[in-house]
Structures are given as structure tokens and as C-alpha cells.
Design brief:
Elements lengths: L1 H11 L3 H22 L10 E4 L3 E3 L3 E7 L5 E5 L6 E4 L4 E5 L1 E8 L3 E5 L2 E6 L6 E6 L2 E6 L21 E17 L11 H7 L3 E9 L2 E6 L18 H17 L4 E6 L7 E4 L2 H12 L22 E6 L4 H12 L3 E6 L17 E2 L2 E2 L4 H21 L4 E3 L7 H11 L8
Parallel strand pairs: 2-11, 14-15, 14-17, 17-18, 18-21
Antiparallel strand pairs: 1-3, 3-7, 4-6, 4-9, 5-7, 8-11, 9-10, 12-13, 15-16, 19-20
Helix pairs in contact: 1-2, 4-5
Amino acid sequence: MGVLALALALLRGEPALVLAGLPLLAWSLLAVARRTARGEERSYPAPSLHLNRRRIDEDGAARATVTAGPGLLTTANVPRPPHADLAPRHGSLTGDGGAALRIGARRWGRIEVGPVHVLVADPLGAFRAQVDLPPVSLQVVPSSVVLDAPVDVPTPIGVSGAHLSRRRGDGTALSEVRAFRPGDRLHRINWRVTSRTGQLHTNATFTEQDTEVLVVTDTTADVSPAPWAGEVAPTSLDMTIRATTAVARHYLGVGDRVALLDIGRLIGAVPPGSGPRQLRVLTDALSRAARDPGALRPLPRLPAVRTGTLTVVCSPLLRPEVITRIGELVAQGADVIVVDTLPPSVGDTSVLRGRPLRLDGRVSERFWPEAWALRRLERERTVRELREAGVPVTAWEGPASLAPVLLSLSAARGAPRRRRS
């Protein structure tokens, strides 16, 4: 345009066109000179995408940085991933030599950041290049809330640990003060009682044991909440994953062994283990679970469970096969607790009051609230039968959901039992 303006000025003899074309020509020559001086005649440096963290918790955030050459104007556009927030909100940012965006996760799972469309230009805007960077994966582990529940278990089955057993032996909990017997340890002699009675007495203690906790997840169905529950309302799969994480963190924190068994084949089995490493293994396995809209598959057979194993079943209690698996666990002698993970908004009958049956003079064909209300009433019968069989069922409502159940199991452990002849 600058050369064309100068040519027209010479041909037509109008000096005003020189004033219009000269700045454009000077700007172009300056841009070419800067590019030649930096040795960028052929291509720009290839932009790159980096994440400061590849693994974050729910409601956490990571920073995605697009880096280009120094002194280059860089614009990055990132499509908004599902269940995530971007800052800037629209996923577009311009910076000098690079651009950084904040990615906030609102749900567990795997987030694909990208593909990122990057536009790089020189400071004068005379040269530019565009490139699409491949997406990178961001793993979001379920939030491990602190479970507000006692650490006691109904039947400790280990050798050593934090749970008080009924068996007397080496421990720290005082059982009784009795007369000294051959074989007792000398450091357990109670000298105050010995000096008062004149006979050697010793302290008898209870042993502390650990236990094995089996968490059974039902991922055969992912029931979405009702539309009036809001966008942030969790599905049944969300509640199952979060309840499993909370239970695992609670018992791994006191030194127990925790195993995971998925009867929906989305997560897979995790062998028993203890410590912080087992918590990382469990959360990684849970975060890799994905929604499977395919057909229902047959449920796997349950492995043999030791008598007294504390088993927590997280399920919406919709499939009869799952109820059968719970019965098999009870028959093997496990202490079973069922955590109901069906969203409370599903089957809510309060929304049916005043709901018209006709819309625009025609009978409404959308009776989903009524259908789910009937299904929830049928499921109440299943819950009642489980409770009558001695299996406690509690709805997942947060960290304090299991406290009443575990307290009742601990109380039932010390209750008197009728002796069979």
C-alpha cells in the first residue's frame, strides 16, 4: 500500500498521497529490518504448551503456559473443557513472549486441555504465524474429605494396629490388675498394688489390632440428578467416587488395609494396602473412571472375604444383581455397610404437587418425575429388607454420613449376646 501510494503520487502529481504512503512504507521497512537483524527470516520459534501440575484435587487449579520466543506477541485460545473453569473466562489471552491461563477443576476425572490455537506476531504486527498445539491431559483426583466418624471397627482381624480387640495380650489399654503369673513381663508389674497388698501384681492389657476394609463400588449406572437440582448437583457416580475416597482416607489414616472392588468394571480392583501410597493408588484409579453409556454387562463374581472384614458398599441400589452381591457378602461373614448414592433429587415427590397433566390441551408424555417417584418407592422396599437382615443403609450426605452407623456397630460389638446351646 505504501509503494502504491507513492506510485500514484508520482503519476498523478498529488503530494498528499506521499504523506499517506510514506509512513506505511517506513513501517514495513522497519519490520523487515528488525526481523533480519534477529535472524528470523525463515520461521518463528515453535510455541509450546506446559502445565505446572499434571495432577490436582477437585476444586483445585492448574496453570497452562504457552511459551513462544522473547519479544513476540503471543495469543492463545483454549476451548473450555467440560466441568472446568478458565481464567480468562473465554480462554483467550495475549501476552509478551507467552500467555498463561488458569484452569479450575469442578469435577474429578481427566481434563483434556486443548487443542490450543496459538497466534504469534512480531511487536510491529507485520509478520505472524499460527499453529495448533495438541491437547495435554490433566488428572483430577476426587476430593478426599475428612470423614467425621469413629475409627473403631466391629471385628478387628489383624495382628497389630490401632483397634482395641477383645483378646488380652501386649497392648496399651488396661484390662485388669491381677496376681503375677509365671511368664508375665517384669515391666508390667504394678508396684503400687504390690506394695499395698504384699503380693506381686501385674497389669493385664488388651491387644490392639488392625483390620482390612473392603470398599465395593457400584458403577453399573450413572443416574443424573433432576433438572431442578442445579448444574453442580452430583450424579450417582460422583457420590460413589467421593464416598469411596472419604472412606479410604479415613481408614488408611489409622493404619488399616484398604482394598477396592468395582462390580461395574469401570474402575477395576485395587489389592489391599496401607499408608499414603495406597491412598494415591486408590485416588488415581478412581479418577480414571469414565462414564460408560453402553449396555449393561454381567456383574463379576465376588472373591472370598474373610469373616469380620468391614465392607462398605457404595451403590444407588437399582439393580437386583447388586442386592444379590450384598447378600453374598453377608453370607461370608463380612460386616457390611451400604452407602446409598442415589441423588436425593431423583424421585422427589414434592415437585409433583400442582404439576399439570396436560400441556397445551394435550396429555403430557414426559412423566419422568412420576416414574422415578415410583421407582424410589420400590427401592424403599429393598432398603427395608436390607435393614431387617441386619445390613445398615445410610444415605451419603457428606463427611458425617457414616458416623451413626459406625457408632451403632461399635455398640453392638460390646452388647451381650445370647449363647447357643
